[in-house]
Design goal:
Chain lengths: 267, 287
Amino acid sequence: MSWHLEAETVVRYQKGQTDRVASASVEAHMGSCRDCRRLVVTDPGWTESSWSALSRVVDGPNLSGVERLLTAAGVKHNTARLLAVTPSMKPAWLLSMVLLMAFAAVASSSRSGFNLFLALAPLLPVLGVGLAYGRVGDSAHEVTVSSPFDPVRLLLLRTGAVTLTTLLVAGTVDLVAGSASGFGLWLLPSLTLTVVTLALGTRMTLWLAALATTGFWALLVAAVAAPSSGVIEPIFASFAQLASLAVLGVGALIFSARHDNYRRAEI
Amino acid sequence: MSNEVHIDDLRLKYGSVRALDGVTFTLGSGITGILGPNGAGKTTLLRCIATVLAADSGKLDIFGLDPDRPSQRTDVRRLLGYMPQEPGFYQSFTCFDFLDYIAILKEQVDPTARHEEVRRVIERTGLSEKSQTKIKKLSGGMRRRLALAQSLLGDPRLLILDEPTAGLDPEQRFRFREMVSGLAVDRVVFLSTHQTEDVAAICDRVLVMHSGQMRFDGTPRDLARLAEGRVWLTDVRPSDAHIHWRTAEGVFRGVGDVPQGAEIIAPTLEDGYLMIVGAAAFEDEAA
């Protein structure tokens, strides 16, 4: 290095009295000049605290897109992190759900017969909840269950988030596409099937419970669909909605009585 | 509060298989290792102590608390750190984020204190340079460190490590042992392993489990003594009735009945282990 900083410039730099251009020039020079670096009087305490502050900024948590969205929606950061690892809260899952619902709504609006939208809408939360907790959906399930955080609280937290998200998607599509049978007929069956899944999950893995519920719904739809037109609206008639409500109640009672099974790792 | 873990007549069946068949012992401070072939019931036992699996019958007392009672199970979980045999990770998370997530599950609510705790375990397990690396980019050895790091969050009094050195190369195993042996101060550490070298290097006490039953409980030296006068070397291949193997020097080393003309040598911990589990240990190696 053929030139060096003047001592006065270094003193002014340290006191923060140099302008931005001069500061940048001093820093650029000191970066490659050991002699000038030695002119800077260092305070070990200041260096330590600065380094520590810098380390906290660099070596800290990174928020995913889902976490940012959730916190922006008012969810606490800790809760957002617990929800963000759920496969059925990932962008890929949410996008595929939107596309599926949109396709089902378009197919159903043609009135070619089978009401695809009504048949599929109740299954979205069921499959989402099936992946929200347990050995199949949560790769860190074993560690999760051994932690003091109440697994049932975690299950309900994720179930609530997944159910709300899927209902919002289905509701939006229903509203936009304008279901011919009336808005929201699928809502109660959706909740019922979700609660039935949670009740079955006290006896088997939650994913298996979701598949069993899905299978049951598929059989019901196939049995009720009119052979010529494929219309499944009787499943959503008033008496059927009442029956759905009753099943929801029974499912909730079973879940309430057996929910402690979720506190072990076999679910 | 008691500083011991009591396991009393623990029993558990998977179908017709008795995974735990009346297991009884007590764990105190220090490192206790449990050896046994595949299917011996080690992982089942560790999962029961880690409260993730309920036994069919028997009693568990962890520092005076009963994990079968839901009200006390949470208290037990506040005191334990558990590293499962195959800990699952969220591949897209960085090490820091994964540990932050587990720390939330461990009820560390305050973000500043929690992040400090995450940094502490990261430094303790030598992961500082990988803190911001995504888990999918970590080597097997680093993943084991991360698994250990999550178990250390909250400075647990009871540390349960299931096969912590599995899949590590000899140098990584050595470093891992160093790390684990530094954790035993004022703490109950219970680890399962296939590696008798792990037990010899870091354990104060060793248990041997086979077919769901506890077959040995003592010091590593006591285990080696079981094979006193029963370990031999011979130049000629013995009959298949003897448990034996060929050494690097080209001679045959065996444990059990001494063939004619064989030279008796001092036993190691592994020889004592072989005396208990016999041929099952070799089936395990093959598996």
